[in-house]
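Hello again, I could really use a second opinion on something today. For a while now I've been wondering how a particular protein folds. Please have a think about how the structure follows from the sequence. Here's the protein in full, and shout if anything looks odd to you:

***
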Amino acid sequence: MMVNAQHKVVSELCHAALSAVDPARAVAGRLRLDGERLAVGERSYNLSGGRLVVIGAGKAAGTMAAAVEGLLGERIAAGWVNVRRGYEPAAPLRRIHVHSAGHPIPDAAGVEGTQQMLQRLAGLGAGDLVLLLLSGGASALLELPVAGVELTELQRLTAALLRSGAPIGEVNTVRKHLSQVKGGRLARWAGPAQVAVLVLSDVVGSPLEAIGSGPCAPDPTTYADTWDVLERYGLAAELPAGVRAHLERGRRGEVAETAKPGDPSLGRVAHTIVADNATAAHAAVRRAAELGYHALLLTTYLEGEAREVGRVFAALGKEVARHRRPVAPPAILVLGGETTVTVRGPGTGGRNQEAALAAALALEGWPEVLVATLATDGSDGPTDAAGAIVTGETAGRARAQGLDPAACLARNDAYPFFAALGDLIQTGPTGTNVNDLAFVVVGQTIAPAPGRWRKES
């Protein structure tokens, strides 16, 4: 339940953004069945005489699969998708098996599910069609380590990469060179069938080679690039033995590279982006304007260290409040993208909560400014929160309760900080994933007050 006007505005923006990137709606909008022909985005496929196989991975893969099955039903010969535990569709599917696995660290269940997908690709011919459903989380959920690398080794390295502060593109560079299905390699398993990839993008700018680590996209990175990433973040010296041996062989040219532009297997692949961060951001801007605010989308390319980006959110709010730039109050600025956190302490939180906490410190004394941060999948880091809401009064309220906001930020401990204040945004699993959004709200229509935001039932 919304407890005040301030949270009602945030609720409206979140609802508009998430509704716009509902996976079922997004997928259904890019598929059209006309007799024996299936249109997928701009491409059309003849279903007569061939088999249709549906595979996929990601937090939204279950919802996407439900939409595909709703349209194609008995035409689906076989289907398997891997989803994050807790992100299963509400109703069981009949033709597509939904398999739960671990995220963000790959686990044995994810490997088993990937092997099941490969079994369903075995023996396909040129007249067959594979629908591949990709969404955020696919890099962890679609995994089969290369020979010589144990799953436990891959898990250790993945955990270290995620704690290092490396942007997702660089993390995925490493992942692609340790996997049998990433970096375009899945397309080879699917051949000679045609492959239509439906993508719910969770990567800034939606580069196909980075989304889900590009299982059917050409990969411009190399083993040398992989080693550069590991050295840049201080991880090369302590690599697990199997990982080190494989990467060294790759650098010497003794094992095959990932699929590069011009690879014949990629010529049978077509990608269609069904929704992305910009889709959600534009929807939030439209809703803000409907609510009477001067609304502006500033960027969907937001990246960087979360605590530094949080200070930028605060600076933008101050500029609007004091100088009426780039728009006059009442105003809502919308920003999209994905930040990173370099873990320095033992605390609990996520990139959106960390950005919000940094913004709270920078906004102290500016009660007319509000910042809200949102992970569109409903899960910010290893927490059950999607983000948090702060104003210029948040830091003062915290100190009055015996909390030290600067100390919490220093130890990456934003979650208990906001939980104590009741300022977490908790949506539960949203069923979608298109990066993160931030809202900077300035205007006298807001009455700063505490209160937890939850998804309304």
In short: The first strand starts at residue 31 and ends at 34.
